[in-house]
């Protein structure tokens, strides 16, 4: 493994035709009690027209990774690294080098985002239609054509366009608001849609129906979807590839099926074991022992070692590099090869994985 | 709609209750208003004895309350006079109609109040918004301190201080009256300018002691709204800053202050009595005080009723229009403006 580490290292997070390339992205916050590193040297490619699921506990840095793609990290966070956007027919764009005007164009026109907290993403004193027109207007789009598109989008999402456009946010249910927000985020026909916990506040049934709507939307509008969640079973059904985050780092990347069946990182395996059944509600999940690390004081070496049953002196001393499990499956762990035997999937998880795949 | 009817009903009930109460006062006060009036008329007649019958009629015409009529009849007379807008005749001003006095003074009180309210809200809203944008800066901290300090001063103390310093020590503003003497009322620069000049100190007394808390509330609201998801999303959607400041932050931060506006109108109506006395400003509060001093029951009741009327109407308008401003209240039985 170690002999061609540097080469496999590259290959692992690279894809054939990436639409967004993230290299060495870091987000730091200067705090009173020290520098808080909430995203650590993230390398990731997002393949054109794929659905990529990014999974992690809350506070694992996954929201930062999402915001980074639009250079939208909230103040006073500082984002560094390189993020390149490769549009279909135009020159590649270095996102972090854009000036304000260009950035304004990139956001929502090329890369759009649905935030955590759709319930409060609409201005309570403006009707939903107003949000669409002002967005079209601000980007100098033809408002009439745009509104026709908006109506079509809304009905694609099983909403009554006229009713929803005239309604004020408080008059819509959570699920309706969420769908209206998705329509709003793609009304400027972006290539990439990043969604941060888009279903967190919804009930199980609504979550499922939104997922299937998203799949349809993706096909119809040629979208690349990045789906960020703490809910592994949810993303397992939807995503082509998955990336797992732990303690502000990407610890494992690979095709969904491969990760579900041959997860190589002890954390990913624990996460899968903590999920009794892919259809089970979140509340039935068993937590993983130990707690997520503090961003100011991340453990030395492999940051998972305090919780990892495989941890040894090497893990405490050195931060693991990426190792290739297969061509497209990478993992940041010294002892990945032993993870499967040391942390067997429990029966439920095995059922769950096969169950998940048969759907 | 239901809610609207309910509100209107409440407003009308309040007005009716106040009018009835004032009738009760006139009629039933021990050594009642009617007796006072009668003895006063007797005095004015200077010795020559007025026949009792004539006295009764005079009292009745002036108070709208006939002391000898049975109570229900008297009440009916009184109320129907009120509904027709007849408040009787003033004793203080030698039998002049109270209506005419109110017509002369009410506009001045309204002028003073609008000036104070507009000034106060203009200052408080813009200051509060700037403080919120510069949260934690020296500007913010200094203004917070000053705002709290000034808010703890009663407006009449401020008025006295202004009279002493800006009126006498450095005579920048006139300290009494409504407009310069010797200027004829009309659409002339002298008159209008003079009226503003005269209203300046009374208005400042309200503004200086009232803007602070309002500005702090605005600051708090704005900070809260600035942290809302919808503002962040609006920025990412690339909306112009101006639109975000006005339509997103401004509107959502100002809305809760609408209630404060209504309360401050009520407060100013009440406060206008003391302030108008201090500045010898012949508004409705000033006349009410005259009525009290001269035991001029019709004048007192007339001004009192008009002030009450003003407050009730202001609150009613506020209530009825709040739903237009805040869509969340539109159909709302569940939430009200205050
Ligand atoms: S590197 Fe060591 S501590 Fe980290 S996950 Fe792998 S085995 Fe566990």
TrEMBL record, chain A:
| Predominant location | membrane
Q: Name one GO cellular component term.
A: plasma membrane
GO biological-process terms attached to the record: peptide transport
- Entry superkingdom: Archaea
Protein name (database record): ABC transporter ATP-binding protein
The organism of origin for this protein: Natrialba swarupiae
Q: Which InterPro entries did the record assign?
A: AAA+_ATPase, ABC_Ni/Peptide_Import, ABC_transporter-like_ATP-bd, ABC_transporter-like_CS, Oligopep_ABC_C, P-loop_NTPase
- Residue ranges annotated for the ABC transporter domain, each copy included: 22-272
Check the record and name the PANTHER family matching this protein: DIPEPTIDE TRANSPORT ATP-BINDING PROTEIN DPPD, OLIGOPEPTIDE TRANSPORT ATP-BINDING PROTEIN APPD
Automatic annotation (TrEMBL), chain B:
Bilayer disposition of the protein: Multi-pass membrane protein
Which is a Pfam family this sequence falls into?
BPD_transp_1
Please indicate if the UniProt record lists Repeat as a keyword.
no
What residue stretches are annotated with the ABC transmembrane type-1 domain?
Answer: 106-318
Annotated localization = Cell membrane; Membrane
CDD domains from the entry? TM_PBP2
Q: What name goes with this protein?
A: ABC transporter permease
Task: Look up and give the organism this protein is from.
Answer: Natrialba swarupiae
């Amino acid at each position: 493994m170690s002999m061609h580490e540097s080469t496999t290292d590259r290959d692992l997070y690279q894809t054939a035709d990436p639409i967004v390339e993230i290299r060495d992205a870091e987000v730091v916050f200067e705090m009173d009690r020290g520098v808080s590193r909430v995203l650590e040297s993230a390398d990731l490619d997002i393949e054109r027209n794929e659905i990529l699921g990014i999974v992690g506990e809350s506070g694992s840095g996954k929201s930062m990774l999402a915001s980074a793609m639009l250079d939208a990290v909230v103040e006073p966070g500082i984002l560094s690294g390189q993020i390149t956007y490769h549009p279909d027919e135009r020159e590649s764009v270095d996102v972090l080098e854009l000036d304000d005007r260009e950035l304004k164009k990139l956001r929502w026109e090329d890369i759009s985002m649905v935030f955590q907290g759709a319930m409060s993403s609409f201005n309570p004193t403006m009707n939903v239609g107003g949000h669409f027109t002002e967005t079209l207007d601000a980007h100098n789009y033809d408002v009439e054509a745009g509104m026709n598109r908006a109506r079509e989008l809304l009905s694609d999402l099983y909403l009554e366009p006229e009713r929803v456009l005239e309604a004020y946010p408080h008059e819509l249910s959570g699920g309706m608001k969420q769908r209206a927000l998705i329509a709003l985020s793609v009304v400027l026909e972006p290539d990439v849609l990043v969604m941060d916990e888009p279903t967190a506040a919804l009930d199980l049934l609504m979550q499922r129906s939104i997922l299937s709507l998203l799949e349809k939307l993706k096909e119809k509008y040629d979208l690349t979807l990045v789906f960020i969640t703490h809910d592994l079973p949810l993303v397992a059904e939807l995503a082509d590839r998955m990336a797992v985050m732990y303690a502000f780092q990407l610890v494992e990347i690979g095709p969904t099926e491969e990760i579900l069946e041959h997860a190589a990182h002890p954390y990913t395996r624990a996460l899968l074991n903590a999920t009794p059944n892919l259809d089970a509600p979140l509340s039935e999940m068993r937590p993983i022992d130990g707690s997520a690390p503090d961003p100011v004081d991340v453990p030395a070496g492999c940051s998972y070692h305090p919780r990892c049953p495989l941890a040894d002196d090497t893990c405490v001393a050195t931060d693991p590099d990426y190792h290739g499990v297969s061509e497209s499956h990478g993992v940041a762990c010294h002892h990945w090869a032993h993870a499967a035997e040391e942390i067997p999937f429990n029966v439920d998880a095995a059922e769950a994985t096969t169950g998940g795949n048969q759907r | 709609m239901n809610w609207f009817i309910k509100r209107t009903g409440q407003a009308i009930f309040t007005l009716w209750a106040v009018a009835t109460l004032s009738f009760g006062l006139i009629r039933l006060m021990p050594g009642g208003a009617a007796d006072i009036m009668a003895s006063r008329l007797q005095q004015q007649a200077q010795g020559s004895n007025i026949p009792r019958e004539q006295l009764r009629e005079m009292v009745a015409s002036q108070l709208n309350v006939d002391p000898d009529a049975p109570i229900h009849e008297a009440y009916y007379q009184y109320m129907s006079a009120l509904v027709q807008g007849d408040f009787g005749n003033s004793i203080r001003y030698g039998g002049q109609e109270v209506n005419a006095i109110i017509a002369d003074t009410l506009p001045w009180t309204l002028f003073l109040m609008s000036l104070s309210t507009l000034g106060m809200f203009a200052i408080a809203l813009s200051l509060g918004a700037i403080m919120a944008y510069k949260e934690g800066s020296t500007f913010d901290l200094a203004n917070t301190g000053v705002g709290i300090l000034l808010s703890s001063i009663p407006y009449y103390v401020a008025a006295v201080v202004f009279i002493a310093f800006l009126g006498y020590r450095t005579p920048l503003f006139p300290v009494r009256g409504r407009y310069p003497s010797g200027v004829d009322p009309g659409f002339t620069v002298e008159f209008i300018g003079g009226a503003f000049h005269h209203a300046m100190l009374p208005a400042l007394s309200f503004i200086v002691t009232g803007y602070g808390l309002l500005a702090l509330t605005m600051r708090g609201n704005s900070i809260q709204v600035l942290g809302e998801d919808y503002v962040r999303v609006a920025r990412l959607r690339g909306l112009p800053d101006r639109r975000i400041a006005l339509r997103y932050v401004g509107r959502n931060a100002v809305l809760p202050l609408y209630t404060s506006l209504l309360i401050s109108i009520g407060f100013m109506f009440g406060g206008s009595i003391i302030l108008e006395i201090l500045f010898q400003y012949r508004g409705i509060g000033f006349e009410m005080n005259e009525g009290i001093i001269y035991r001029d029951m019709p004048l007192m009741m007339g001004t009192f009723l008009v002030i009450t009327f003003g407050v009730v109407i202001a609150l009613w308008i506020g209530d009825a229009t709040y739903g237009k401003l805040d869509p969340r209240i539109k159909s709302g039985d569940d939430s009200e403006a205050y």
